[in-house]
Amino acid sequence: MEFGVAVKRIAAAFAHRANRSMEKHHLTVSQAEMIAYLNRRQRDGCPVIQRDIEEALNLSNPTVSGTLDRLEKKGMLVRVSNPENRRVNLVEITETARALTKDVLGDLWDLQEKMLSCLDAQERETLDRLLTKILDNLAE
Q1: What distance in Å separates the CA atoms of residue 1 and residue 10, rounded to the nearest whole number?
Q2: DSSP class per residue in 48-114
Q3: How far apart are CA 102 and CA 25, in angstroms?
Q4: Using one digit for the tens of pLDDT, what is the confidence trace for 19-68?
Q5: Axis-axis angle for helices 61-73, 29-43 (nearest 10)
Q6: Predicted confidence (pLDDT) per residue in 57-95, tens digit
Q7: Among positive and negative, which fits the CA dihedral 59, 56, 29, 90?
Q8: How far apart are CA 113 and CA 79, in angstroms?
Q9: How far is CA 11 from the centre of its chain?
């Protein structure tokens, strides 16, 4: 199978299964990834603005804005004034989202383990090394 087609099919299959898994949390995978990113940054004491999310998750401004709006309506995050720059809001997850993070990440980890269960440890290591090499090559 052609490499690009295989990668696309794997990504689509993972996204489909992950979205089904996230339904019980009333989230999409994109929303869960954003919450996980915000949780990690807040835990590390790093304030986050929308531009940080766009860059970290490689998403467009409209995509991030829409996802933030939906998460805010669900009570998963708040936007607060940035004391250093009043033109930009900080984005923070709420306790509700923080409480979900462990379960959400656990579900995604379980799904990843299920998808990779056909590979032994050596094959997983090789796959990881090769994918990293390809990604590094694309970044050049």
Answers
A1: 12
A2: -BHHHHHHHHT--HHHHHHHHHHHHHTTSEEEEE-TT-TTSEEEEE-HHHHHHHHHHHHHHHHHHHH
A3: 12
A4: 999 999 999 999 999 999 999 999 999 999 999 999 999 999 999 999 99
A5: 80
A6: 999 999 999 999 999 999 999 999 888 888 889 999 999
A7: negative
A8: 34
A9: 13
Task: Give per-residue pLDDT as tens, 118-131.
Answer: 999 999 999 999 99
Calpha distance 9→3 (Å, rounded): 10
How far is it, in rounded angstroms, from Cα 3 to Cα 7?
6
**DSSP E strand stretches across the chain:** 77-81, 89-93
Contact 81, 87 (CB under 8 A): no
